[in-house]
Design goal:
By secondary structure, the chain is α/β, with parallel strands linked by helices. The protein is built from 14 helices and 16 strands. It has a 7-stranded mixed β-sheet with strand order 7-6-8-9-10-15-16, with helices on both faces. Strands 2-1-3-4-5 form a 5-stranded parallel β-sheet, with helices on both faces. Strands 11-12 form a two-stranded parallel ribbon. β11, α14 and β12 form a beta-alpha-beta unit.
Length: 397
């Protein structure tokens, strides 16, 4: 909205001061991911993706009349609420203007409730997918560039039916993410006529999962779906099931998709399949080339979404003419969605220039960004299968 002309000198001075604050020469963006914990093998590329967008904007010199963007990393531990909250508080103390993260759903909810909301800080998570975050009273401060697990449950159910799976056993990591995803898979699969023989939680970090595998095997099922984490309990469940001869093929939701899983499990994982948030087209192709040149894997899970989270922050700031969360938060949906000129990876300078001129943009980015409802991704999924020890993309939904 256009600013109203101020009628008094005092009001004009206030407006001048606000503009100066909004055009600070350094914008700080926090990156809070689980650099330790059950998805630590994914978070290096995720952070690199976010930081690449920040460097692209800094190099352009276009943000808020020449502001530089400084990333500040912090560890969420993925499943450690205390660590995540204390590190988010440290980022607030360090003067961040926005927070990318957290990564896993439970810590994301904890940071949102205990840090972001009390401090009026905007968060954009590239990977927190719990359906519970959709209905949380976030005071319009929380967004995510990955779709909700409610949608992933539908996608997995469709995939299982397409592959002729009539019954499944289902195990999930015992936290908000695992429970929400398991509920979504079960309800969607049963709605299509599939049978769920057992739904059982497992704890991460155990040395022996024979008891859990025994209960799952006793219930039976054509396939075992493991809604866990690829660097923690998930591989333990799979290895236990293979050792027991209970299953030789596994259903793998997003938290299990990453190159560490086939490396750790070995060739017996070949033929297992699942899905993870991902898109196809010009955006991801460009981003994959950019990231390869920068020395990291842009196709790694949630890495495109991390680039897009950073880009949305900076484009929204430009649209608002301010790095203050109270000013730019309402602009995130505007820059993410139509109408407007489409902006792809590598075109952030163009987007900033258009916004400065008052022209609408539609940020497509690396993950085909389209934010719906309470600011979350409508989402497409990449269907993957383990072939010759690697996850290969075999389709999209």
């Amino acid at each position: 909205m256009k600013k109203m002309l101020m009628a008094t000198t005092a009001a004009a001075l206030v407006a001048t001061g606000a503009m100066a604050d909004g055009h600070a020469k350094e914008v700080k963006i926090g990156i809070e991911f689980g650099f330790t914990g059950p998805i630590e093998s994914l978070t290096g590329p995720m952070a690199a993706g976010a930081e690449m967008a920040m460097q692209e904007v800094t190099d352009s010199g276009m943000l808020l009349d020449g502001a530089t963007v400084t990333p500040l990393r912090a560890d969420s531990g993925c499943i450690d609420n205390g660590l995540a909250v204390s590190n988010a508080e440290r980022l607030i103390a360090d003067g961040i203007n926005g927070l990318i993260g957290a990564d896993c759903s439970g810590v994301t909810g904890a940071v949102l409730q205990n840090v972001a909301i009390p401090n009026g800080m905007v968060m954009i998570s590239p990977s927190a997918t719990s359906p519970g975050l959709t209905t949380m009273d976030d005071k319009d401060l929380f967004f995510r560039t990955s779709p909700s697990d409610a949608r992933e449950g539908e996608v997995m159910a469709e995939l299982l039916m397409e592959r002729g799976v009539k019954s499944i056993a289902l195990t999930y990591t015992n936290n908000d993410y695992g429970k929400g995803l398991a509920d979504a898979i079960q309800s969607s699969y049963e709605a299509l006529g599939g049978e769920v023989t057992i739904v059982a939680a497992h704890e991460d970090g155990k040395a022996d999962y024979s008891a859990e595998v025994g209960a799952l095997a006793a219930a039976g099922g054509d396939l075992l779906v493991v809604a866990g984490y690829l660097d923690q309990g998930g591989p333990g469940i799979i290895k236990g099931a293979l050792d027991a001869g209970a299953w030789d093929t596994f259903g793998l939701p997003g938290g299990m998709v990453g190159e560490n899983l086939p490396k750790n499990v070995g060739p017996d994982l070949n033929g297992s399949y699942g899905q993870i948030a991902g898109s196809q087209g010009e955006g991801i192709d460009t981003f994959a080339k950019m990231s390869e040149e920068a020395g990291f894997d842009g196709t790694s899970p949630y890495t495109p979404e991390s680039y897009d989270a950073a880009a949305l922050f900076l484009l929204a700031m430009q649209a608002a003419g301010s790095s203050d969360p109270a000013d730019y938060g309402s602009k995130i949906l505007e820059v993410a969605n139509a109408p407007g000129e489409k902006i792809y990876p590598g075109e952030l300078a163009k987007g900033l220039e258009l916004l400065k001129a008052g022209t609408d943009i539609d940020y497509v980015g690396a993950s085909s960004v389209e934010l719906i409802g309470p600011g979350e991704s409508a989402g497409t999924y990449r269907i993957v299968e383990v072939q010759d020890g690697k996850f290969e993309t075999v389709g999209f939904k």
